[in-house]
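Appendix C. Worked example: Xylose isomerase-like TIM barrel domain-containing protein
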Amino acid sequence: MKEIINISGYSVDLERYNNSWEEVRRFVKDMECSGVELLMGGEYDETIPRDLISSVHLPGWLGWVRLWREPESVPAKCDPFKQAYYYGAATPDTLIRTFCDNLEKAGKLGAVYAVFHITHIELDEFFTRNHRYSYHEVLSSAASFLNAVCRNYPGGEPPVTIGFENLWWPGLTFLSQAEVDFFTEQLEFNNWIFVLDTGHMMNAGDIRTEQDGIVYVISALDGLSERTIRRIRSVHFQCSTSGAYQREHFFREPPSGFSSLSYGDQISLLMPMVAKLDEHRPFSDPWCKKIIEIINPDYLVHEFTSRSRDEFQEKIMAQKNTLKRSIEVTIP
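Step 2, the predicted output written as structure tokens:
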């Protein structure tokens, strides 16, 4: 199993390493890791060392399913910022082309796999959880979209393995084998894997403690088939125990005036809340190793949010030290 870290190609991340990929390489080595999972934007930077990139995280368009299923419902004069970052494109055809471009950039970077969120959420649904589309509708739309993408390539197979990642909104959650089967049985290509994000899975439950979160993840994995477990080749390993925060701030109507805000202002309001919901902090209980033992992935991604290089280093080392500790107490 290879251990890697998350990083983006944006200046806010690279500035921590003096805008030097060689300094990123030294940091990865100091953390006793083998590479990075790169959050990729729309550009392709030829200065990024191919041997440093283990995987690429594709842009996540939270509203892309609506463009794919109901393009007529997307305003013709949509805010360009929202069009690019929420819907992903202006039309279904350009959405396919944009996705293909990103896959091809991932291939040029030497990525073993490219991660894509299988989800959809309208902005007001962050609060209400009254969703426009059901889980099956999102999964079916994702399958049809990805099939359309892959038909552009020889043999109908993508140029880089696509890794399907779970979230806690409608789409792929790994909380039901039936939903996993419903999705995968519609796929017309085979060059794909699953990417389990442990914190995202915890966010799907009312998790208040780390131990409860670990039990929740193990229980969910116990409900999956051996075939599905074998397809989970990468794990975004992070802990999130935001159940109390979610109950306090969500499952209710949006703040007054939310719908009249610009897209940029809506996102500015939502992102700090999502950061508190999706904590991305290191595990501290060595029982978390049971999750890794069940899956036996090829890649473990230490995926954390941080405000500085020092904080990032502290979180990586804290989790690596947890993984080295022996399990002394059995979680009931």
